[in-house]
Amino acid sequence: MVNSVVCVKQVPDVAELRIDPMTHNVIREGVPSILNPDDRIGIEEAVRIKEKHGGRITVLSMGPPQAKAALFECLTMGADNAILLSDRAFAAADTLATAYTLARAIKKYRNDFDLIICGRRAIDAETGQTGIQIAEQLDIPHVAYVKNVELFPEQRKVVVKREVEDHIETIEAPLPILLGVMEGLNKPRLATLREIIRSKNKEIKVVNVVELGGDLNLYGLKGSPTWVAKVYPPPPKAGGIIKSGGTRETVTELVKILVEKKLIN
Amino acid sequence: MDAEGKFDAIVVGAGPAGTTAALTMARGGMKVALLERGEYPGAKNVFGGVLYRWPLEEIIPKFWETAPLERQIVDHRFMVMSKDSGLLLSFKVDGRGKAPYNGYTAIRAKFDKWYASKAEEAGVTLATSAVVDDIIMKDGKVVGVRAGPGIENELYADLVIAADGVNSGLAVRAGLREPPSPDQVALGVKEVVELPAEAIEARFNLRKGEGTRMETMGCTHGKMGGGFVYTNANSLSVGVVILLSHLMELKMKPYELLDEFKAHPSIEPFIEGGKAKEYSAHLIPEAGYKGVPRLYRDGMMIAGDAAYLCSYPEGTNLAMASGMLAGKAALHAKKNNDFSAKTLSVYHEMMNESYVIKEMKRKDSSHTAMLNNPRIFGLYPDLINEILADVLHVNGETKTAKHKRAKSKFRDKVGLLRALRDAYSTRGMAP
Amino acid sequence: MSQTSNLITGTADIESWKGIFVYVELKDGKPRDASLELLAAAHRLKESLGEEVSAGILGKEVAGFAGMLASYGAERVYVAEHELLEHFTPDAYTSVLSRIILGNKPSIVLYPATPNCRDFASKMAARLKTGLAADCIDLKINEKKQMVQIRPDFGGKDLSEILTKTRPQMVTVRPGSFTKLELDTSRKAKIKKVDVKLKPEDIRIRILDIKQFKVEGADDLVKSEIVASAGMGFGNKDRLQIFEDFAKTIGASMGASRPVVERGWLSRERQVGQSGKTIAPKLYFAIGISGSVQHRVGVENSGFIVAINNDPNAPIFKFCNYGIVGDLFKVLPMLTEELKKVNNKA
Ligand SMILES: Cc1cc2nc3c(=O)[nH]c(=O)nc-3n(C[C@H](O)[C@H](O)[C@H](O)COP(=O)(O)OP(=O)(O)OC[C@H]3O[C@@H](n4cnc5c(N)ncnc54)[C@H](O)[C@@H]3O)c2cc1C
Ligand SMILES: Cc1cc2nc3c(=O)[nH]c(=O)nc-3n(C[C@H](O)[C@H](O)[C@H](O)COP(=O)(O)OP(=O)(O)OC[C@H]3O[C@@H](n4cnc5c(N)ncnc54)[C@H](O)[C@@H]3O)c2cc1C
Ligand SMILES: Nc1ncnc2c1ncn2[C@@H]1O[C@H](COP(=O)(O)O)[C@@H](O)[C@H]1O
Predict the structure, then answer these.
(1) Which of A65, B129, C90, C196 registers the highest number of CB atoms within 10 A of its CB?
(2) For residues B140, B146, B149 and B151, what is the CA-based torsion angle, rounded to 10 degrees?
(3) Which residues of chain C have pLDDT under 70?
């Protein structure tokens, strides 16, 4: 038996940015939300482990009520139950506050876990910090960049492969542990029709800040040591030549410049 | 769902037709699965669109109090346009500000989701992201559907209702009809243009919450089709509809047509300054009554666009009406515990008595005529505009001379008899 | 659970944290350039802060690098040597570095944004209950003497400035964002040997094996003198043929923007930008690419940037050397044609 908690985030689908056929501009509005790709790999791995060793899978997310859709998807892939931490008080959290919130929920609702699985990174911000910070707050070890997982529940250990830059480490670690998983670990399954229907009866528990308890000063923006002070467009670089029209003359001029500058030969 | 994956009935497609059928059956005590390929019902569904009060009111009384609706339609407009002018007719009704109204604009992504939630409340098991790709047959009877490989993707039922829209892969699989041919369907392309509510109300001369439905003709290069502008709460739905085979003859991209339409001097002021929010395209059944396929077989019925039950711009209402009758037929079959074609033929009988088929027949009378008559979508709109422009232009020439010229123009280009014949042949087009 | 209480504390005694600390990562047995660049960054910060620039280096035998770190700008070097620091493990490294940090209280800690350091820095930040700004491209000091950490905003168009309420202010910095100082062997540093107390049981994971591998694929992208990238302006995969023709004609490696890769039009190794490759070819073409900051940070050090885009307001025109406002489906084939003429002459 291996009990897993998989942390998942709902993110905007970057592949779905659509082009307006009239203006050729990108339509960003109404871009659908999806389950973060690395997290889908996390849930798949948890289900494979469950299929092999038994146990229970809880998926956990912090986010707006719409994130239920992402959690439901995890249920249809084989997770047993889901918890959504949703409250205005959790909003605008940085990774440390997010990790605090998630860690607290894990302690409170699934303290019998053997394994926590996170994605390597969420595609909306790509910090890749949250999972590791959850592990530290729960005082358990972690391995990031995991590309292969082998479990030995009787010996309470796991052997994983960690891929960084130009080498692969084989690592043995005790349970409980947190794994940050990435692309290439597995190929996530498609939900089956019957599992979709069965998932209708699985629980998605929505938890607000009152229910989660804890120190209110440690959640959301208040609990975040970092904050965004300013957002502004990057400064233009001077000196560029801009030609409108896209005519033959422009193109020949460009080629001439490239030849003169010996950028092409 | 029991352990063998069985329901009393499976409905494929959570559009207006499917949701109505599922709701009707669940209310009658049947265990129903409603399968929808979208991430949620309506996620990718497209219409103009105006939702009519009938027959939704029969299914959900006072739906207008809770449904996500955009504006109540009090202003019906019709425009005959040429390349750069337009004759506009406007008819205001229901303008006294009292619900219920006869029609409402709606956004399908919101409405279909809400409507399906009503079916869930009635006990329907709704499964989304469920793409059905085949029916399962046994001994010549439809016994279930399949949504992928393996038994875990199979679902069984006494009855399958295909309400999977105009392309209806399932109706085709069941041998009830063929895939649509280019002269059986029109392509609708639509853009949602965001505008503040106040701007919409000012531009269309509306009170708060009121809406306009505008249909136009003469914007399809003489091909069968037209344009539309509908007012939503904070946006306009602007689109062009054109028979697919005619679009292919035109050799234009659909969005080029829409581009032209949006730039037309009679349309552009409505949308000026608006921000394009989304763009979509969808097929519309245009096969008329003659195109309506057989509606049932052993263990299966079809409803809505899947059965070509659409008489543009009326579609959702016909889909709901057919879904409701299919649901009633299912309850009848359940009572007799017999889902054979023979029992299900009651669906066909009820449909024949209904507004749906009667309206389809009326429309059909003009369909073929319009299909092959380029005058209607090109020459007439142009001529009407040309004559009006001439007559209204004050330049010292007498009106009598202008009227005379108008008459001769008309005679030369059309002829009175031909015009009368055209008028008669297209009477089905009348609202 | 030892760490979940009183997270946001270190705000009370901000004044007592002083100095700029650079974590020096080893790669292939020596300090990697990305860390040396951070010493230059630290000196930039020092101009406004006037505080000491120190470096910390952890490993099995690393004392020999202290002189080199001094030559690149470190004024003080902490050397932590131990058997158990031979390979990076989050437990050992966090235990040692957090003790150095808490013992000396620098107000700023810089890490290169490499995979191991991003892993390590995340744990450090949680251990020290402080903030960590990820993958920044620039750093400044504001009038309140706070470090302003600049990184691309999630929206894609803008930069954002991130401040940290707690101390130390920690940040991972994108390699290549700063240029390392000239090597100057006359610079000297105070060297401080750290007394490392580590027991095997402090490290909860065990590395059984390490295998090097050769990074395959779009290696050529990084090495190429000419790179051309395709963006969403192509509309769909089928229309990339003219792009391939162009790339072949001019002898360019093919790159792509993130959505192009996400849609599977080109393979993942070809992604250029913040979460893809950073490149600096002599000549770069951005075709049908809007020029979001995330893309920009990966290409802006190219020698000469050419952009083709039909939107005159596209941000790409704010940092290219030669921009053509026009339909790429018209311009690109013309360009290919003209290039072929040049090729034929040569
Ligand atoms: C541009 C345009 C404007 C229109 N304007 C109006 C208007 O103003 N008023 C009006 O009343 N009507 C209008 N219509 C027509 C109207 O949209 C349709 O007649 C109506 O939607 C038909 O309903 P339906 O339930 O039969 O099919 P649909 O609404 O098409 O629903 C079919 C459902 O089945 C699902 N589905 C399809 N295949 C599968 C599968 N294999 N597995 C699972 N699910 C599947 C789809 O996702 C969809 O949810 C318009 C149509 C268009 C295109
Ligand atoms: C955390 C994070 C990391 C990211 N990392 C990266 C990264 O590593 N690399 C990266 O590229 N992006 C990255 N992005 C995404 C980035 O923000 C942009 O969304 C992306 O770069 C846009 O790609 P694009 O320019 O191809 O598409 P768009 O922004 O859609 O631009 C397409 C351009 O094509 C033009 N165009 C359209 N039709 C034509 C035509 N016919 N002729 C000429 N021009 C035309 C349009 O005017 C438009 O400017 C990241 C985003 C986030 C949030
Ligand atoms: N709001 C959240 N809810 C649940 N899990 C999250 C959340 N944010 C991040 N994670 C997890 O942490 C991983 C890394 O995220 P990030 O640090 O944002 O790149 C993700 O792949 C998730 O597994």
Answers:
(1) C90
(2) -80
(3) 1-12, 155-156, 215-219, 346
pLDDT tens for residues B301-319? 999 999 999 998 999 999 9
Nearest-10 crossing angle of helices B355-371, B416-425: 150
CATH number of the domain located at residue range(s) B7-68+107-180+288-353 in this protein: 3.50.50.60
CATH number of C2-202: 3.40.50.620
Size of interface A-B (CB pairs under 8 A): 66
**Tokens (6 digits) for B139:** 């001994």
Q: For B61-97, give the secondary structure using H, E and C.
A: CCHHHCCCCCCEEEEEEEEEECCCCEEEEEEECCCCC
Name the residue ranges covered by the structural domains of chain C.
2-202, 220-345
Q: Measure A55 CA to nearest chain B CA, in Å.
A: 21
CATH of the domain at A54: 3.40.50.620
A interface test, pick of C2, C5, C7 with most A CB neighbours within 10 Å: C7
CA dihedral sign, ordered A93, A97, A99, A105: negative
Please tell me the total count of domains within chain A. Answer: 1
Measured in angstroms, the CA of C261 and the nearest CA of chain A are apart by 8
Does some domain include residue A130?
yes
Please state which CATH class domain B185-285 belongs to: alpha beta
User: Under DSSP, is residue B187 helix (H, G, I), strand (E, B) or coil?
Assistant: strand
Q: CA C317, CA A242: separation in Å to the nearest integer?
A: 7
With CB atoms and an 8 Å threshold, state whether A129 touches C213: no
d(Cα B361, Cα B367) in Å, to the nearest integer? 10
Task: Indicate whether A243 belongs to any domain.
Answer: no
**Ligand 3 closest atom vs CA A117:** 23
- Tell me the two tokens of residue A39: 């997290």
Handedness of CA B108, B113, B116, B118 (dihedral sign): negative
In angstroms, the CA A10 to CA C185 distance is 52
For A76, what's the count of Cα atoms within 13 Å in the CB-facing half-sphere? Answer: 23
Contact C81, C63 (CB under 8 A): yes
d(CA C275, CA A123): 9
Does A125 sit in the ligand 2 pocket, CB within 6 Å?
yes
- Percentage with pLDDT > 90 across chain B: 78
**Residue span of the structural domain in which A112 resides:** 4-218
Residue nearest to atom 1 of ligand 2 (CA): A125
Could you tell me the fold of the domain covering C220-345?
Answer: Rossmann fold (3.40.50)
Cβ neighbours of residue A188 under 8 Å, at least 6 residues apart? A40, A41, A43, A44, A77
Q: Give the model confidence (pLDDT) of B83-100 as tens digits.
A: 999 999 999 987 677 888
The predicted model scores a pTM of: 0.87
Q: Measured between CA atoms, how close is A210 to chain C, in angstroms?
A: 17
* Mean pLDDT of the residues in chain B: 93
Supply the pLDDT for residue A26.
Answer: 47
Does residue A41 belong to any structural domain of this protein? yes
A248 touches chain C (CB under 8 A): yes
Beta strands C304-309 and C26-27 are unpaired
Q: What is the pLDDT of residues A65-79, one digit of tens each?
A: 999 999 999 999 999
Q: In the 3-class helix/strand/coil scheme, how is chain A assigned residue by residue? A: CCCEEEECCEEECHHHCEECCCCCCEECCCCCEEECHHHHHHHHHHHHHHHHHCCCEEEEEECCHHHHHHHHHHHHHCCCEEEEECCHHHCCCCHHHHHHHHHHHHHHHCCCCCEEEEECCCCCCCCCCHHHHHHHHHCCCEEEEEEEEEEECCCCEEEEEEEECCEEEEEEEECCEEEEECCCCCCCCCCCHHHHHHHCCCCEEEECHHHHCCCHHHCCCCCCCEEEEEEECCCCCCCCEEEECCCHHHHHHHHHHHHHCCCCC
- Model confidence over B339-373: pLDDT tens digits? 999 999 999 999 999 999 999 998 877 777 777 78
